[in-house]
Amino acid sequence: MATEPHHTPATGDIAGGDRRLGVAHDGRSNVRDDGGAHRGAHTVGKHAGHHTEAFRRRFWWCLLLSTPVVATSHMVMEWFGYELDFAGMDWIGPVFGSVIFFWGGWPFLEGGWREVKARRPGMMLLIAMAITVAYSASIATSLDAFDLDFWWELAALVTIMLLGHWQEMKALGQAQDALTALAALLPDEAERIGTGGSAEPVAIDDLRQGDVVLVRAGARVPADGEIVDGSAELDESMITGESKPVARDVGERVVAGTVSTDSAIRVLVDAVGDETALAGIQRLVAQAQSSQSRAQVLADRAAALLFYVATGAAAITAVVWVLLGDGDEAVTGAVTVLVISCPHALGLAIPLTTSISSALAARNGILVKDRLALERSRTVDAFLFDKTGTLTKGAHSVVGVAAAGVDESEVLRLAGGVESDSEHPLARAIVAAAAERSGAAAAVGFRSITGRGVEATIEGAAYAVGGPALLRERSLDQPAQLADWAQGWRDRGAAVLYLVRDRRIIGGLALEDEIRPEARAAIDDLHAMGRRVVMITGDARQVADAVADDLGVDEVFAEVLPEDKSAKVAELQARGLEVAMVGDGVNDAPALARADVGIAIGAGTDVAIESAGLILAGSDPRAVTGIIRLSKAAYRKSLQNLWWAAGYNVVAIPLAAGALRWAGITMPPALAAVLMSVSTIVVALNAQLLRRVELRGPALDQRGT
User: I want to staple 508 with a disulfide (CB 3.0 to 4.6 A). Which of 6, 402, 407, 488 is the partner?
Assistant: First the structure.
């Protein structure tokens, strides 16, 4: 089974811009944002038409306009003991304040109106209500209807809100830089081999299927394809998360964005643009960053509830202070309550955690297709692994050599020579083993013996390699020293071949589907985490048991028909276990879909990948433990952010309403805006700590959250 990442069909919505990866020419992701990534607390179209740069620009202009408004406030002058008096000073507040309200506050007013039309009140409506009440009170003060010095409060309120939203969008943008980083993995140009055999530079967008490109040492592969000339060690870490370079030779696939570290190769392009594996990865990252989890649903409900709580608290505050005969405090208190309770941090708590965890997963070769699957992974009790292609390589290798009258290395050398011209998978395994250990002998006169084996001449002697059918045809008996050895391997389900010289058996070779060296470490880590490991396969019981014994698997389902794999998942679930299925084949798709969490090995089929919620870009099963670590860390950060974002309102709202005014403790609206922004910063910084999570660290017993 090849280990290159498999192309994943489009699942996101990439629009326009750079055709390579759906990234606009200004570097922003063109993944459509119509509220998907900012549902509920972020509300429908919260930032529609307003980008990070727009908030930055409005903030700096409003800060500039706010400075004279604050400086000419009589309240501020009284606080700091200075006086200003010049012609037209009384017009600074109304004129500059109106500009700040209508231009600087427009994103909030527009967002609030969108929430009203969508019947989904949230943060933007709260802010719109707060600044509208503040503006109305300021106008009324200028008309002598109130005795409030409120223009400076309005200016400071809008400016601080713009700062908070600018920083929020900046934080989200930084988390979503994974998309831009993936686009940056592709070179701007490729060297296409022309009709004359010379390399000519062409734009990456001009490549087509069937083109042959030259990838020099140290250069990135510009498109998916197959090596047609040369061999190289490729750095595939940006795709699979594995830092060790992988040897690739003629006939093997390479993917766009990987780096040829040591030599030049020529690649026949078979996928470009949105059809490359890299583009598929980017779509999955974008989809994961915009998908909802249970924590997001909780945040949405909390934000909606907070709107009604805040509106009710503001109304009660206004009524109470009016009844107490303090109309100024009624306005101030109502505005302060609306400001302090804005679910700003609540709206950022989950989307930022989602973005960072999805990007972190992608950098470690874990592609999150369904956020809910990642969230559930922390509570999975049993991991059900398909054997072939997941715990094993899906290809035979020589696992045992026996000799009768010659050295074992000589058996391997001679058998490798006899099989050197054969295309049979077992022959390829023998030749590979011979090349690795002793080198294959030079053979001539190769001939295939249909159904029995092959034969050739080496150094003037006739040799043959075959199984029991060859021995029966030639009426050959095994030497005593080989009989027990062969039976032991056959009891494990291994294939046993014999090396025959003239009329005598001189050696034997045992071949098995090779266990991935990483599989043992993965299972040990899962056991250390308190998880149960189950293996499922269609192979015979003795083959399955041999692999299970080698790996230390807890339970084995053997001789399972493809259509029955889903039933085995249901059987485990009926025991009260939460089950994660890890597989890579077409016949794994129903089981992947039936499991609580479906994890597809990235080298597998499109069908398996479509049925899974999580995809391993490489074929290293150790990444499964990384999923658990990330799931726990992301869930923990989400809950911490939710508790902080919603919890501080329990103290803040009564304080903003003036409950402690009798003790001399008050909170003006501008201070409420500062505290609200501080809470947002705390949430953002806490989410950033996710970047410290080590997905490939040592396993610890950390069941639960």
Answer: 402
